[in-house]
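Appendix B. Chain record.
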Amino acid sequence: MKHNIRVIAAAIAGCAAGILGTTSYLHGQAARPLDGSLTHISFTVNDVDKTAKAFAALFDVPYTPAKEYRDVPWGPDFPGKVMHGKIAQVRAAGTNLEIIQTIEGESPWKDHLTKHGESVHHIGIGVPDVPAAVNLLRSKGGKQTQGFSPTVVYMDMAGAGLPITFEVTQARPAAPR
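Structure tokens predicted for this chain:
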């Protein structure tokens, strides 16, 4: 019995030391502004319904039919500019695939489609602090191309030598366990 108590006490002491050691190691380390998670991969296409159906068939999953969005603001660097598009969603391979078709007028989506053809337009990442992430991306050469709200901001990273735009969004709190 004494042996069992010693083993249990040693196990508890070991766990406590591990927790304290880990806490001491992590204490004072701030999260990096881009620490977060992938939320989606977005594509600009000529036919949103055709592309969504093709992705859904490829992965053998359902898709959310396209919704039309009008008067979407470009963001603070483009005052008064709005765009119009259709967007569909397909959940596949552990992430969301967002498919966008411009329906009329100017937009960053249309500019991308004209320049690059049907392709990846942006990668969505959820972060704990959107303004901090945007400030970091801007300091690295990023340019804001869209901004629907303070918690949804698109940053084109061509100025940093990267061929991608990030959609930075507020991360959802972790689900309780």
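Further analysis of this model is presented in Appendix C.
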